Amino acid sequence: MALLRRASTVASLTLASRLLGFARDAGVAALFGTGVVADASVAGLSLAQLARRLLGEGALNAAVLPALTPVDGAERPRRAGAAVLIFAGAGLALASVLAVFMPQVIAVLAPGFPDDGARETGAVLAGRLTVLGVPLALTAGTLAALANAGGALARPAMAPAAGNVAVLALLGLLWLSGAHAMAMETALVWLSAGVMAGAVTQLVLIFLAVPRGTLALPSRAALASALPMLAAAGPSLLAAGLPQLRFLIAAAAASGIPGGIAALFYATRLVELPLGLIGASAGAVLLPALAARGGVGEEIGDQTGAQTGALGVEAALALSLPAALGLAVLAHPIVIVLFQRGAFDPAAAELTAQALALLALTLPLQAAEKVLAAIAFAAGFGRDVTRAALIGLPVGALTGFLAAGPLGLAGPALGVLAASAVSLGALAGSLIRRGLLRLPGANRRRLIGLLAAGLLMAGAVWAARLPLEGMLGGGGLHAVAALAALVLAGMLAYGAGAVLFGGLSPAALKAGLRTR
Description:
The protein is mainly alpha-helical and 516 residues long.
């Protein structure tokens, strides 16, 4: 099956998961707004949520797949079983340490929380209740890598969606139980139970997706031979986690703003909706495809691996650029339509829109970075990914903390934008120097065409928005209809512009969806 077709399968299932995840976050926003419970829950649940998002996007594929590929016969299932036990044990050890030192962890994640205040106390409670989400996510990520190695893409990609359904069910019970009248501790227990229910559901479904014969009880020899996977996973997880660390640093910078952490989280979730599609596709499809075909530098049919990587970057930008510009131009009405209800009042909407307008611009940068990271890992240069991300972190931290005072919540968002730009530039430069990334003239012309189409779309949407400001600001069905019309107009403008300026070829899209 063609690469584009396989990627679209994973992306479609990931889209379902992200939409359900958004429904989950919108439900929490309606129940608690950007108040004390929301701030405490976002800070306390951040580690479990980070592990789930990180390991749900193929972060362990780079560690597990290369270690299993050269192994045949009965030894392969035993080594696979050893990998699951090793990662589960490592996760439990890490969770134990985090539980003991959770107050110190929260002090780092949210330094702006008042000492011994309600937000700090609630965050520590939620963190300790959900810390087992870390080993559950590690185990699920290992099993997903084994399923991908066996050719199963759809069912592992479907598991996060089922996990979000479990969380939504708990939120429904929370609403029926009178969330608004609950004490903070009780509400956080409910929210933590939802997170854990989602993690368990996801783990069970991914386990069921692993093909028969893939797993077997490990021998001592298998455990010993699988131990290097744990070491190999370190660089992969670090590289995949560093982009997420930008958002944790931004949240730390926003923690001194009342409601800042929660508002930044809601804005981040809107940006992650399209970003997750590209990350999941790159992790589950692009990386295994490059690895199976002998790496980036060898012939792949009538294309080289470097050309395949260039096409991956092109596809990522084709998807992320219009989403980024649309979110930036329509940040405030989008937040009003999607979040402003219940405890999420106009002040919370304004705060969230401030962050979203800038965070949206990071989307194409992070999308391209995810594809370039998959190329680097497939070629055995994962350190380049880590190095590039580490270069960007201090830039983002300095920008976010310094700008939080004069710019409010836009300051931490600007820090994420700065870190993303610096990291992408460093990684692209490294791959170009190694000869792993080439952008021939045709690719460059298409990228310029996509950029021109995106700017055309942004201008058209901005102009069309002006006469609809009253409807958009009022909320309700009128705002929904006006926003839907603007989104449709933007899609049409972008599609027409992409074809007009040579960014997209209808014939090439049809060919990419055909089976070989």
